[in-house]
What we know:
The chain is mainly beta. Helix content is 5%, strand content 38%.
Amino acid sequence: MKKYFTDIRLLLTVIMVIIGLFLNRADLFSREVIFKDNEEYNIVSRYDRDWVYESYVTKDGEIYTFPTGYSGRRLKYDNAGRVKELWYCDSKGELMEISSGYAGQCREFDEQNRIRFEKFFTIDGSLAVLPDGYTATRREYDASGNAIDIKYEDSEGNLVLTGSGYAELLRKFNEDKQMIWEAYFDETGEPVARPQGYYSQTREYDEDGNITVQRFYDINGDPMITTWGYAEVRKVFNDKKWAIKEAYYGVNGEPIVMADGYSALEREYDDAGNSKLIRYLDGDLNPYIMKQGHSILERVFDDDNNAVIIKYKDADGHMVMTTSGYAELKREYNEKKQVIKEAYFGVDGEPIALADGYSAIEREYDDAGNPRIIRYLDENLKPYVMKAGHTVLERVFDDNNNAIDIKFEDADGHIIMTTSGYAEIHRKYNDKKQIIEESYYDTEGNPVLSTQGWFRMEREYDADGEVSVERHYDLKEQLLPDSKP
């Protein structure tokens, strides 16, 4: 029914524009037509000589805004009734850039009315560079109307490597118009690997259109192990199109062991589609014991789809202690879905102390999402004094999310001296996020010797990321004899 109204709306729109142009009738140009398009909003269309202006209102007469941010559009049709140009507007009818990164787009069509070329524009009419790095797309189709060749171009019409890692996609489809093969190429037309290492992939589907098999191939078209840890994944879906079984295979179709040791998963879901239970299986599809000691992960989610309770169980569904020192986690989140409180429990559901002595932590975050403050709590959720002497850890992060300033504080937020001989640490990092310098300070910010005997430390690394040089300095910046090499 929705498609029927959409087709009728397009037909009426085109007829009104063509008649108006033919008769040059101003009253037709100023006419307003309301289309009841769906349950969420109505479309209000107005016309002038060149454009169709669309705005959207709810059933209550309120302005409707689409997820990408626009509340209206300006459309220009060609003689065949195709939208050849469209621009996005805000609630006041002013041009705006939508969240996709552009304000307008122009289209060219092939003989079968399919979009063969499309370019994107900013508010001022200049070519827009989309977040993925391209300005235009060019498509070729097979006889069934499937886009089998998609090219991404810059403002000069040259192929450009997008942020997705390719400049061109080649595809094949089955008779149900489902993509069954896809390969990736760079701006020179050479095969290019996806971040997971593969150059092409194939897919198989069940009768409901779910992807049941995915296989991945190298530059020569041979099966390969991706960085995900497998060459092939097979899935089974329920009637809600949620994957309830997932198994992983190697290049010869043999079960393969993932990094965490399992070869397959089984899932159960809550009503919101959250994976509430995960069973880990081996290559023979028998229960597998994870390194942490559990075979089943059970979760409870809140209304915002945050996992607020996490339980670890054996193959029979009994609670088990993990190697992390707990059998259950309870979490609280802020509006940004960041964990602001985490508490630990034993198999009996009672609070439990971890190896470092605390039973819960609270976190605060900076604008970049880094946990800038961590508070340690005991079993009664009271401040807990760590072995080093602090109750609060406060950190400052740089633009690369490296902790460059670390302060140790008591429960009231006062900086304190730790048992390591300092109250504050300053750090510097290289572009690989490795610590290249570390220095120590007292509660007043004065340089101080740590219990290790030095004030400042410098490091260098070899090609494998191992520390190759470590230099230690005293308070007078004199090199200490325990430096290496």
